[in-house]
Specification:
Blueprint: H1 2-8, H2 18-21, H3 30-33, E1 41-42, H4 44-51, E2 54-55, H5 58-70, H6 80-86, E3 91-95, E4 100-102, E5 107-108, E6 110-116, E7 119-124, E8 130-135, E9 141-142, H7 144-149, E10 156-159, E11 163-169, H8 170-179, H9 181-211
Parallel strand pairs: 1-5
Antiparallel strand pairs: 2-3, 3-11, 4-10, 6-9, 6-11, 7-8, 7-10
Helix pairs in contact: 8-9
């Protein structure tokens, strides 16, 4: 955990600590640092307009997030106080069915937590096969891999029903790092653990599909 905190404060990156700089740009500048054209980046603000998202009151979104994460094997490590502190860095929205929240092979700098409804996770394989990787449940997290590593989106995430979601953008993550680095460190560690587990499951699924 100390190593993560050092990274968040910029010490291992050669940046000033958040207390001195007054801000952190670790996530918001990551895409540019990898040479990604800014015009290819799809932020949540643009996607929200495309999908007709309607803002959800923080009181409702935060309550749903707290309830779901309290039941999650990994996210339950964040106590109620931690989740309440985290709410101000999230946005909350309601989205109609049949809308692409995330598209395969795009660059996006936000992750999504499904609060209500169902979202399908699909991938088009290089040889053209359409593969459904999952139909997510409330509490599932989507898109965190691109937020963490600034890489291209691995799959498409489409609402099957009307959904309520929580959104954490790169800007929100940076603000959390600057204002509450211990909380940000805890969240990143838990996201990395959940992501590793999910990648193992998806990798096994893709291997089975390819061998059939």
């Amino acid at each position: 955990m100390k190593g993560i905190l050092s990274l968040l404060r910029g010490k291992t990156l050669g940046h000033k600590p958040a207390e001195e700089s007054g801000d952190s740009v670790f996530f918001t500048t990551a895409f540019a640092g990898q040479g990604v054209d800014e015009s290819l980046l799809v932020p949540w603000e643009a996607r929200a307009v495309e999908v007709g998202a309607k803002r959800l009151p923080t009181s409702r979104g935060g309550k749903l997030l707290q309830g779901l994460w309290a039941k999650d094997k990994y996210m339950a490590h964040l106590d109620q106080d931690a989740v309440e502190r985290m709410e101000r860095f999230f946005e909350f929205a309601a989205i109609p069915p049949s809308r692409d929240v995330i598209r395969q092979d795009e660059y996006g700098n936000f992750m999504v937590v499904l609060l209500t409804g169902t979202i399908a996770v699909d991938r088009v394989q290089p040889w053209g096969e359409h593969l459904r990787l999952a139909e997510t449940r409330p509490g599932d997290i989507l898109g965190e891999m691109s937020l963490l590593d600034s890489g291209i989106r691995f799959s498409a995430c489409t609402t099957l029903t009307e959904c309520e979601i929580a959104i954490l953008s790169a800007e929100g993550m940076d603000e959390m790092m600057a204002k509450d680095p211990q909380l940000a460190a805890s969240l990143i560690a838990l996201l990395a653990r959940k992501l590793s587990l999910r990648l193992r499951v998806v990798s096994a699924r893709l291997s089975e599909s390819h061998n059939q």
